[in-house]
Amino acid sequence: MDRDGTDRGTGVAHRAEPETPRSRMRGTAAAWQGRIFFAVGIALAILVRFAVFDFEGNDYRFFMGPWYDFIVNHGVFSALGKRFSDYSPPYLYLLAVATLLPLKKLYAIKLVSVLFDFVLATGVALTVRERYRERFLPTCAFFVTLFAPTVLLNSALWGQNDSIFTSFLVFCVLFLSRGRKGLALLSYGLALAFKAQAIFLFPLLLALLLVRRLRLKHFLLIPVVYLALMIPSAIAGRPLGDLLLVYTRQAGEYRHLTMGAPNLYQWLPDNYALFRNAGIVFTVGVVLAICALAVSARAAVGRDGIIRVAMVSVLVVPFCLPGMHERYFFPADLMAIVFAFYFPRFFLVPLVVCLASVFAYVPFLFGQTVISPAHLSLLLLAAIVAVVADWVQSLGLPGREDEPKAGGNRERSDHAA
Hints:
By secondary structure, this protein is mainly α. The chain has 20 helices and two strands.
């Protein structure tokens, strides 16, 4: 129905019903109901996080807690000029700010990550809103994210900071779907500056480069953002070369094929020397195969294509890479929520992915195994088969002139939208 009352489908004009005091009251009541629902949801999200704030995990005891103490004992500026953590400086800046808060140490550390839970939920909701202009479904996506088990466990209970870099990855996908290329690569640069695991989304960016939806000049933003975020620590006295090698040092810290991650290495002997390099080469081959498929079908050019390839990227890469930790499927957990809202028939995908992540967390957090990691890997493999098959099917069949064109037109119209 157009604004003048004309039905778009039939072209028949319909007389708009005059607004009455009763209809205005109904509209006002509905608006207030929505506000109350939102406020109650936010309050519950805060309360459930506060309920688990007192949990102290090993990462807090041996890593985040001592880092916090180091900053307090040496002073913010002096501490940032030293290498006292294996994390990149941007997170340490936030941790330094946390030391200034009038909160107990455990609460201050967790608050940093919990605040980004809400940023993350906003990014998911805005991405879903690109498909559904009404408020109901984006609001649902917002609260599904806030109450997702892995989001609650990761930030409020565990005190990990995966919500920070994943927030920037989600905003990268959002800006790509809007055609805001500079903002997308800026967001990706921020994600990569916080965590090396941002590389999981890189196949999407590479595919967009190869189909000429991104240019090399856009990728220059990634090192610019990274270097800019290293400057405060460099000014404080930390050598720039040391700052640039943060991720290379992280890569050699743990010599295991998998650190509890439910991926394909759960099915292999933990022989790091034998399988590590082969696993990296295999992953590179898989990424190139994804890009080759995208190029051959001119894929990932529209909104739906971007969501599909993003989902494939953040799910397949950590499944194939060696040396992954149990929480490295966190970006996949969140993209699975977006994916299910875009393609409702795949509502089981976020359930399966998040279930695998939750039960991968349990042995590390609580010291007991509920479901074998090898079986969790099978769950993720099933999810991978589903999302990859959906993506391939959306591209059309090779050699058929009608289907590829239809798919191509659909993706282009999505992009225009």
